[in-house]
Design goal:
Elements lengths: L2 H20 L9 E4 L7 E3 L15 E3 L18 H10 L5 E5 L2 H7 L10 H5 L4 E4 L10 H9 L4 E4 L3 E6 L2 H22 L9 H10 L5 H18 L6
Parallel strand pairs: 5-6
Antiparallel strand pairs: 1-2, 1-4, 2-3, 4-7, 6-7
Helix pairs in contact: 1-8, 2-5, 3-6, 6-8
């Protein structure tokens, strides 16, 4: 194992613990995948059957684009759950990390016919930056990949209708920042909907907000994720083992 892969393993294991810290978990389901540095299209994925708080650098599984382990592992993987991730990793060269969640507010917005509201601080940052993909059942059919890719295009924030949220990035911190922004927009929308109608924003405000803010500044992405890693480091540093 190269030093680069070991570093990627530690970073990804930290991400799983960060998701657990934030409550972005769904028992043993969902995935964060990260490309292993090197010429091969190999990726790290969580071992199926473990909760996110049990994921460590050493028990992550390295897989190819078909979801097959490239070296022996004592843990299985959920190959069906890799259908979405592998589609994006295969087609988008810059998609080094893909994240998928089933949070309550994320799934709630995904189930709304109107989709995501942009009439909030975080929602405004995502104006014209969110892709939608219709629900086709449990994602186990490889034929769905072409339709998913056609809908995603170049957008890094994706709402899987009636399903959940998905983001991708050139790095793990970037994918995380897109997901965090999308998740916060969903949180605010669902909370506000119980209190009354949201104040509508105008097109000029959207244009200015997207121009001045957004989840794609590398230095900010790195700083945000590093701060959360420090937080989990104080709770339980065993993710590095």
């Amino acid at each position: 194992m190269t030093e680069a892969e070991q570093a990627a393993r530690i970073q990804l294991a930290a991400a799983y613990r960060v998701f657990d810290h934030l409550g972005w978990t769904e028992m043993i389901f969902n995935h964060i995948t990260l490309r292993v540095p090197g010429p091969e299209r190999h990726f790290l994925i969580n071992p199926f059957g473990l909760h996110y708080r049990e994921v460590t650098a050493s028990n992550l599984v390295t897989v190819d684009l078909e979801g097959n382990p490239v070296r022996s592992s004592s843990h299985p993987i959920n190959r069906a759950g890799f259908v979405i991730h592998s589609a994006i990793h295969r087609a988008v060269d810059e998609a080094h990390c893909v994240m998928h969640t089933h949070t309550t507010t994320g799934m709630s917005v995904a189930s709304l016919q109107s989709g995501l509201s942009h009439d909030s601080f975080y929602g405004a940052q995502l104006k014209e930056r969110v892709a939608y993909h219709d629900f086709e059942g449990v994602t186990v059919n490889p034929d769905e990949q072409s339709r998913l890719l056609a809908n995603v295009g170049e957008k890094k924030a994706v709402i899987l209708r009636n399903h959940g949220l998905l983001t991708w990035g050139r790095s793990l911190p970037e994918a995380f920042m897109w997901l965090w922004t999308l998740q916060r927009a969903c949180d605010i929308q669902i909370t506000a909907s119980g209190a009354g109608a949201m104040i509508p924003l105008g097109e000029k405000v959207f244009e200015q907000t997207v121009r001045e803010a957004g989840p794609d500044e590398p230095a900010v992405c790195e700083a945000v994720f590093a701060s959360l890693v420090r937080t989990i480091e104080t709770k339980d540093p065993t993710y590095k083992s």
